[in-house]
Write a structure and sequence with these properties.
Largest sheet: 5 strands, mixed
CATH architecture: 2-Layer Sandwich
Structural class: alpha/beta
Number of domains: 1
CATH topology: 60s Ribosomal Protein L30, Chain: A
Helix content: 10-25%
Shape: globular
Radius of gyration: 15 Å
Strand content: 25-35%
Order of helices and strands: EEEHEHEEE
Distance between the termini: 8 Å
Length: about 130
């Protein structure tokens, strides 16, 4: 079993609403959830998601096993959010799987725990087993 702690990503804070929305120069620690570009893409959110995947890959230095039909990989996720405003833990897990298995996650399965909270030390703890 491989256990890894992924710290939150420092993400830009925004102020205002609608077209007046802008970065205010501050950052907030976030555990970023999965994002896909829809009919009206939110490029800020999309870029944040791509930054999160890069952050996950840098945080997981361990060599992960390949996921195959004969040897599937289990990836369990425990999200410790800084506050009650957060992504869905299932979407955080999906983003981590996408980052760690870019060739395809067809044989990756696992668990996401209900949201946990730690304002002092937000993080994602993952366990990978084969």
């Amino acid at each position: 079993m491989i256990r890894v702690i992924i710290p939150p990503l420092a993400c830009a804070c925004y102020s205002g609403k609608g077209k007046a929305r802008h970065k205010n120069g501050k950052t907030t620690p976030k555990l970023v959830g999965y994002y896909t570009k829809g009919a009206r893409p939110n490029y800020s959110r999309m870029n944040e998601y791509h930054d999160w995947k890069d952050h996950v890959r840098k945080s997981v230095a361990a060599e992960l096993p390949s996921a195959t039909k004969e040897q599937p990989v289990r990836l369990d996720v425990y999200c410790y959010f800084p506050s009650g405003t957060h992504a869905d833990p299932e979407n955080v897990r999906k983003g981590i799987v996408d980052a760690l298995f870019p060739g395809g996650d067809k044989y990756v399965y696992g668990y996401h725990h209900h949201p946990l909270y730690d304002a002092v030390n937000p993080r994602v703890e993952i366990e990978v087993t084969q």
